[in-house]
Amino acid sequence: MCAAFLLNDDFLIPYYTRAPVPDRVELISLTQAGVAIMDQVVSNHTSLGAALLGVLSHTTIFIRGEWHLRVGALIATYSLLFIALLYAEYSLLDDFSAAIKVAGQITGSYAGGLFGSIIIYRRYFHRLRNFPGPPLAAITKLWHVWNSFGGRNYLLIEEMFKKYGPIIRTGPEELTIIDAAIPHIIDGPKSQFTKATFYDIFLPMKTVSAARDPKEHEARRRIWERGFTPKALAVYEKCIMHYAELLANQIESLACGGGSTTDSEGAVINVTEWIAWFSFDVMGEFAFSTDFGMVQERKWDSKMRLLVDGLEAVGAVGPVPWLAQLGRSLRPRPSLVKDYISLIKWCDECMDERLRTKDDRPDISQWLVDAYRKNGSQQAERPWLEGDASTVIVAGSGTVSVVITFLFYQLARDHSQQDKLFEEIKDVDIYDRGQLQNCSYLTAFINETMRLYPPVPTGGNRTTPPSGITINDKYIPGGVTIVAPRYSIQRLESSYVKADQFIPERWTTQPDLVKDDRGFSPFSLGKFGCLGKSLAMIEMRFVISVLVRRFKVEFQDNDTGEALFTGLKDHFTFAPGNLSLRFRIRK
Ligand code: HEM
Question: Cα–Cα distances in Å, from 314 out to 142, 440, 454, 459?
C-alpha cells in the first residue's frame, strides 16, 4: 500500500478495482502492470535510498573540514561510480538506454540529496545563518564569482556594506567585516588567526605569502627577512635610483621632442604603463637579477603582459579556491588558467637561469637561493623558490605602481598640492634616504594615496581561531573566513572627516581629520604583514621625488582622468585603468 502512494495513478485503477472477472488478455495486461508497479517500487526505493545517502554523506562527512583541494578527486570518483553503475545495469538489463536511465536516476538522486541537504543546512541551520547578506551568497561562493566578475569586488563590497551593514555574510563560511577595529583583531600581535582557504589557489606553487601552515610560514618568513636588513636595503636603493633616473630621462627626452607623443608643451605620457614598466624592471632585478628593459625599450615585455593577464585569473576565481584547482585539471584549459600556468612556467625558467649564475647577486632572491642550495632536499624546496620569486615580482611591483599612479592622478587634480610637494623636496638631497624620510608632506601624500586606493583593496582573508572571536558584542565561531576590505575600511566616515576626499594634511597639520586610525593598514600588520614595506617606501619616495622635481603634471585638454577609474580592477592587487598626463619640464 505504502508503495502505491508513490505510484502513477494510471496503474492504480485496474489493480484495485476487482469486479468484473478479467479475461485472458486482461490478465496478461494486469500481470504486466504488476511487474511495472514492482519495477517502479524498486526504482523509487533505490532513488530514495540514494538521496538519503546523499543527505547522510553531507551531514556526516562533507559538513566537516576543508574539501576544496579534493574537488577534482570527488568529481572523478562520482563519475567512476556512474560508469560502474551503468555497466552493472547494462549487464542486468541488456538495454543501454534503460541502463543509462537507472544509473542516472541513482547518481542524480544522490546528488539531489547531497546538494539539497547542503543548501537547506547553509540557509536555515548554519551557525552563521543570522548574519545578514545576499541569500545566494550564504549558499555558494559561486554567487561571489559571478557578481564580482570583471574585477569589481571592491565595488560589490561597498554595495553590500550600504545594504546589509558592517558585518555581512558573503559566503557559506565567510563574513566580511567593515570596522576600524578589525585589522588589529585579525593581524595584531596577539592574533591567533591563520591564512584562509583563498591562499590555496596558488597551489602547487608555494610561497611565503600563501603559506597557510603557521610553522611553515614562520620558517619561510625568517629566510625572507634576511633580504630586508638595512644593509640589503642600501644595495637595493642603488638599483631603484638607477631605474628612477632612467625613467625620468626617458620622459624628459619625450618632453623635449624625442617621441611621437610630443608637442611644444611637453609630452603626454601613459602614466599607468610607464610606472608599471618601471616597477616591473626594478622587481625583475630583485627577483631574478634580470633587466626586463621595459623603461629602456619603452614597451611591454611579453612575459610581463602574461603576468598581468595571469593575475586576472586570481581576481576571477579568488573567491572560490576549488574552482581554481578544477580549472587547472580541466582539458583543454580555460584561457585564464593557461595564462596563469604559462606565468608559473616562465618563473620556473627564470629561476633556472638565476640558479645557473654561480656568483652571489645582491638581489632579494639570493637569500632564497641560498636556503635552496643549503637544503638537503632541493626537490622539495624548488616549488618555494619559484613561488617566492614570482611573489617578489607580483607583490613588489603590482603594489608600488598602484600607489605611484594614483598619486600622480592626485597631483594633476590639485596643482596647489603639487606645488606644496615640490616646495618641500626641491632643496632636499634626495640621494640621502634620511632626508627624504623627513619630508613629512611627501610621506603624508603617499599615506593618503594608500588610504583611498590601497594596492591590496579587499584581499588578505583570515580564518578565526577555534575558540572564535567577539566583535561589537557579536560572537563569530571558529573556522570562519574573515574578509577585512581595506578599500571600505579606510573610507569609513566614522574614522575620517570628509573620508572620500584626498587631504594629505590629515596626516600632518590637520590631525583632527583623522578620528580613528586603527583601520589604516595598507601594508597589513603583524606576522602576515608586508615584508617589503621599507623597500616600498624607499622606492616610492625616491621615484616620486625625482619626477616631481623635474616635471609638472596636468590633465590634457578636457580629460579628468576618468579612465583610471573605469578601467580599475580588483585582482587581489588593484590594476589601475589608463592615466594619461602631460609632463612639462620644470624651468
Ligand atoms: C606600496 C607597496 C606595498 C603594499 C601596499 C603592500 C601591501 C601588502 C599587504 C597588504 C600584504 C598582506 C597580504 C595578505 O595578507 O595576503 C603584503 C604582504 C607581502 N608583501 Fe607587500 N606591499 C607592498 C610592497 C611590497 C614590496 C616592494 C615587496 C617586496 C618584494 C612586498 C612583499 C610582500 C611579501 C613577501 C608579503 C607576504 C608576507 C607574508 O605573508 O608573510 N610587498 N603586502
Answer: 14, 36, 18, 11
